[in-house]
Amino acid sequence: MDRSELLLGGKLAVVTGASGGVGKATAVAWANLGADLVVCARSDAPRPDGYPSLVDTRAEIEATGSRCVAVRVDVSVDEDIAELARRTREAFGKVDILLNNAAALIPEMNLPIAEMSVESWRYQLNVNLTAPWLAIKTFLPLFPADGGIIVNVTSGPMPGEPPIRRPPGAGFPGAAYPTSKAGLNRLTDVLGNELRHRAIAVVAVHPGRARTERNTDQLAAGGYDPADWQDVKHAVATLTGVVTHQDPMALTGTVVYTPQEPRADLN
Fold first, then answer.
1. What is the DSSP string of 38-50?
2. I want to staple 238 with a disulfide (CB 3.0 to 4.6 A). Which of 8, 93, 258, 261 is the partner?
3. Taking the model in full, what pTM does it have?
């Protein structure tokens, strides 16, 4: 089959935080649907700890027949985001889909307020909220006249599920991560309206309880049972459904939730 006939044939997607987890799985899935990719992560070298890396992501994308540019980017650094846009323009001249997936999943994210430093708080809000805002601002000139889709990966309680209450002092996450994601939801709402005239849909996607390569240990340390979390393929299906939606503008400004399997602690 001509790749241009695939569901995302001819599209260019930029995915941040693409070395593993939701970002990597989604980038590879979109490549299988015909999209070309620009992917980024904080390192573009193989990881010594055995976790997947941007090298693996690029190899899997190119194995599908799609083109891929992999860029080392720390989204907390303004100049790195500018370089990502420059490399995208240089290689493809446009962007059709921007997936803001990178997040500050650091050990300090679990600290209570009395122990979390101001520097850690600011870093997490920078990566999780300011960086998506800056990426959207920076990539806007690269969207074609007929529009495109911006997707922000968010978090928070799922509809119908109460937030898990842990003993005082317990982490995962601390205050910064959920605060930044709540802000990301509002950013999605505001920009969904602001960019409507350009036919650019801005949608937040909640991946649900996605079990990734790197969060299993964090979940266990925070009092969660990783077995209650589900395969990342469910989040990928939701993200793919958004970018292939017959009318993405019908979703703009909203949060789309990934359907969840029953969780043991709610039965």
1. EEEES--S--TTS
2. 258
3. 0.92
